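Notes, p. 3: input format for complexes.
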Amino acid sequence: MLELKNQTAVITGAGKGIGRAVAEALAAEGVHLGLIARTASDLETLRGELTEKYGVNVFVQAADVSVRTEIEAAVQALHEQLGAVDILINNAGIASFGKLVDMDPEEWERIIRVNLMGAYYTTRAALPFMIEQNSGNILNVASTAGERGFATGSAYCASKAALISMSEALMQEVRKSNIRVVTLNPSTVNTELASNNNLPIGDEDRMMQPEDVADLALATLKLPARVFVKSAGIWTTNPQ
Ligand code: NAD
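Output follows (240 residues plus nicotinamide-adenine-dinucleotide):
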């Protein structure tokens, strides 16, 4: 198992849900963090908590991942503050569901812009640092929705399928630089994203929690560098 202590990680959408759980799990391993949120002040409390509890450095930058200039500036600033970007977690994401003919085209496009373009912009900004240091780990939080489409999910499923596909292509491009690109594909997780969209979360004791995805992220990051994982999917109930 690889030691993560004193590595550095940039996490998008770290304010709540899965991103927050991953941030805490990495801090507990001694990883220094660069957290990105649309409003940096939203993350000040989390920064204080993680710094005090785990003694790691935590820097915060404001950026909307779907705005290229903003996310490029944020990644650049975090690289300067952290001194390196060893781990990138593309977690920021949004969801809304509706029949393709009924959905507002602007909403459809917004989902693609955040979930796909956002991960692309962030990766494009961080990758040169990883190539330069000849190592890195990129975890893209996709979804089982990207593995198989379902009714009302045309935008969300398409965004996550494209993210999976982009990750596989990138994996082939950067493996020679010892950079691993992995998609994490959870089924429904108990977060605001799920409850706001009335997603079936499952019964009380089999509800997947953000911390379960954080455990998966940690397990993936701790695999020896020689191991290339394409994707890691987790379900708490049987796949249908
Ligand atoms: P969440 O709504 O609790 O958290 C999402 C985070 O992303 C928030 O902090 C939000 O502010 C941030 N964010 C959204 N748009 C952003 C933007 N344009 N720029 C910067 N930050 C932005 O949701 P979650 O369930 O924790 O989702 C995290 C990721 O996991 C998403 O990519 C989501 O698609 C994926 N996912 C969620 C589930 C689920 O059931 N909850 C299942 C599979 C995959």
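The first strand starts at residue 8 and ends at 12.
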